[in-house]
Design a protein that fits this description.
Blueprint (H helix, E strand, L loop, with lengths): L1 H24 L1 H4 L1 H12 L3 H11 L2 H7 L3 E8 L10 H7 L9 E9 L5 E5 H4 L4 E5 L5 E3 L1 E6 L4 E5 L21 E6 L7 E12 L10 E4 L11 E3 L5 E8 L10 E5 H14 L5 E2 L2 E5 L2 H7 L7 E6 L4 H5 L6 E5 L2 E2 L3 H9 L7 E7 L2 E7 L2 E2 L8
Length: 382
Amino acid sequence: MKRYWLLFSQAVTVLLAAWFIVATLKPQWLHKRPVLASIVPVFEVGDSERSEAVSASSYATAAKTASPAVVSISTSKAPVRNPHIDDPWFRFFFGDQQANPQPQTGLGSGVIVSPEGYILTNNHVVEEADEIEVQLSDGRRAAARTVGTDPETDLAILKIELTDLPVILLGNSDQLEVGDVVLAIGNPFGVGQTVTSGIVSALGRTQLGINTFENFIQTDAAINPGNSGGALVDVNGHLMGINTAIYSRSGGSMGIGFAIPTSTARNVMEAIVRDGSVTRGWIGVEPQELTPELAQYFGIRQVEGVIITGVLQNGPAAAAGIRPGDVILSVGGQAVKDVPGLLGAVAALRPGEATDIELERRDGRQTLKVTPSRRNAPRRQQ
């Protein structure tokens, strides 16, 4: 009996020593099965589950849907020849300067928005160009003509004569929210069609000094030179905006890009295709942001709105009775809170049709009937 007890105690001692060594040097051996049991359901999924996970984090479908309708635009402009280049005395003192100057070229992007070949792009992409060539994603090339431009929103409409054109679907940019995922598609630096992703960083950006009428979508999707006129699309591949400008210190993307919303682009496009130009209302006032100092100076109690500091003599506003010191509260039932809002509300008025303008002045609130005139086109458009 004593012999068996001795064997048992020695076996227990050996097993305890072995357990101690393993626990010290290879502790994972002791927990191998529980760890595997906890990892398998987290990282290993079936084929159907894996495909769903990939599709949820991939925007390949959106890119495939929108990319065929995004085109590359090449422009050229005849060089300006120095009028004195043939004067021998000029050439003697200044040399043979630009005897055969090279044409100026530019690159940009555009979006096919109609089976008839209408292309939406930026005005600054095609401005003053003598020749415009469009290259599709399938390799086809065609010369384009300018249907019309709108420098005040930096939009332009081109037209090409090709058949079987891919067309992008216009989305509702008014439904965008900050944080929505968007893709920027274009031809940055002329390297070829490129897709970048980001989110909507802000909406309704104004007072950037880019255009007369501003209502930009801000995004951190990479936008670089050559992307101008390209598409900003949502995860369904629907057009939400036209990429227009970036904030940059180096010329490259810094994560602050701006796009013109589709809601604005659609109105401009329809007006240009229908009438050849955009018709906007004008009432002849000089607006300014309302400040407490201005409110005190003019003796008004209103704290929000746009104050009129100047009225053009014999203009529509003067004829309706609007005076300096009036604070515009609404135009045609649309509330006005800042100068860009006033400009946009007035521009949307139809010339010749009277509309109500609500205002606040020293002696109380009033509503006046104003008949807007047609806003003159900028000089560069004329």
